[in-house]
Amino acid sequence: MTTVGIIGAGNIGGTLAQGLVDRGYDVVIANSRGPETLSELVAKLGSHARAATAQEAAEAAEWAIVTVPLKALEDVPVDALAGKIVVDTNNYYWERDGRIAELEEGRTTTSEMVQRHLAQSKVVKGFNHIAAGTILTDGTPAGTPGRRALVASSNDPDAVAFMTGLYDQFGFETVDVSPLSESWRAERDRPAYVIPQNAEELKANLARAER
Prior knowledge:
Elements: E1 3-7, H1 11-22, E2 26-30, H2 39-45, E3 49-51, H3 54-60, E4 63-66, E5 85-88, H4 94-97, H5 101-104, H6 110-117, E6 122-125, H7 132-135, E7 149-154, H8 157-170, E8 173-176, H9 199-208
Parallel strand pairs: 1-2, 1-4, 2-3, 4-5, 5-6, 7-8
Antiparallel strand pairs: 6-7
């Protein structure tokens, strides 16, 4: 059984933990406040989930999800995630993260910042432009007309292929907007952000995005 490390236990982290447990994964989840603060969540998730420190979650992971505020990126373990696929769900919220000039000037993207921090990992952008409350409700079987689509973006083709398979398990089509330097197209305040859309609509919204 595959073990997934989830670093970040907010709305997205908790929702993905539930979805993964429901799909037969083991989950090791961490937050910034310590494993003891996650007892209620892991009790709800059941026997295939346990709380841990971020370091322990990274070490246990066969692949990982990093879903922390951008301002907390430096706290994400590096060595324990080396060689692993890491799904990055982040978006830049200056109100929360503080002003970051290289993002505001279009010189990098949030996922490129994650990849720079996790230099030996295969970072792939995923689940960043869907509201947490619809991750477990909007998915439909493959072949469903108008099936909702989500973006994957990575500098590594294997990571995109992995994300495509994961999205399919959750009931979503994939639109590849690689490399990571293009991932800004699906972030906050752009046409593709949060709204339900099929693959063709998503491609059109990505193309309309302006920096």
